[in-house]
Amino acid sequence: MLKDELPKIVTQTVPGPKAAAVLARRRQAIPDAIGTIYPTVIKRGEGAMFEDVDGNYFLDWVGGVGVLNIGYSQPEVVKAVQDQAGNYFHAMANIVTHEGYVALAEKLNAIAPVKGDKKRSFFINSGAEADENAVKVAKAYTKRPNIIVFSGAFHGRTLMTMAMTAKKAYARGMGPFPDGVYRAEFPYLYRKPAGLSDDEALEFYMDSLKEVFMYSSPAEYVAAIVVEPLQGEGGFIPAPIPWIKALRKVCDDNGILLIADEVQTGWCRTGRMLATKYWKEAGCPPDIIATAKSIGGGVPLGAVVAREEIMESVPAGVIGGTFGGNALACASALKVIEIMERDHLADRALEIGKKVCARYEQWKQKYDVIGDYRGLGAMLGLEFVHDKAGKEPYPELVTAVIKEAAQHGLIMENCGIYDNVIRFLCPLVVTDAQLDAGLDILEQAILTCTK
Prior knowledge:
The chain has 451 residues and is α/β, with parallel strands linked by helices. The chain contains 14 helices and 17 strands. A seven-stranded mixed sheet has the order 4-12-11-10-7-5-6, with helices on both faces. GO terms for molecular function: (S)-3-amino-2-methylpropionate transaminase activity; 4-aminobutyrate:2-oxoglutarate transaminase activity; identical protein binding; pyridoxal phosphate binding. Belongs to the class-III pyridoxal-phosphate-dependent aminotransferase family.
């Protein structure tokens, strides 16, 4: 079965002839702004593997950018969606109640580690929608106009979430943006100010937040602070728990809500069902969680969950939407969560992370171009530099390594504020043999591209 296969290239180069023909059609039919550097056209996928139209087998370390934690074509999920499709595709939640929406909200309320006992959830279609709706909920509850986000943050491509996103390559020419979005420094400890210990650096980053209150928006006008438990586009940088504790105290002292953007970190990826479980275990849970991606197993779905008093402050008509909580998506999500809990995929993420980090540590000792690796569970970043001493980012090498690895059946993606980090988002159903094969391909690509 494909899900048990190893990477295998049967064409002389990739793309093969069939894939090249489809990619040529793509260039004529689709805007260049929706670009791709990957020489593949998928035919079918199973587990962590996919086959292209030329018969090449690829190991996927991107997983639809964090969408496929459960893997491609999980049979039980496929059947759940098929069964639902046999009854009806869609019933708008404002018009006709379907039980899947209710059951999924009940499940999310039960497992989401937000502050408070009684919770409520609602559903939308994507991560950007989840983040934007979380902000709306916070503004409704606090009656305040402003929010604070962070350097390195990525929250989406709607107008509001483009304003929230740090890297303006994602928003070139799209202004003016909504007012009331202010930015503090995220604790990127690998690139902390020279001479500071980690504890001193965390004080430096908290001072950055205080400067926002001083120079941009007084705390009493801030509705929410929005933070990723582990930054995705920013370079796979975990938010240190002591820093989160400090944020939680600032929020509590000033009537500000703490929003966790769990779009990419959620659904077993970090070794917990939701990464904010780490926060709750440390006594600093968020007030609101926005999530998406792997909750639907590949069917578009986003969600927002908060304690009841927050959710019930929202005026009628402010949240919702035509396709939010679509019946097919809810059926998929319910089965995805069932399988994740039953098969202990959060524990599997920890096992995968341990195995990958062991190799990354070896490379860090062997290769001067490996500056840092970090992450939580199986959400890991490998940062490339020209040399360890100077830490100068090396995005050209990352681009070359990704292209070289693709020629041998491994698909990876970069990230980071300097585009110099390779992200690891492999489906959590990857086999150990596949993981070893992928690590071997990546190491050989590093060697090839640094000769």
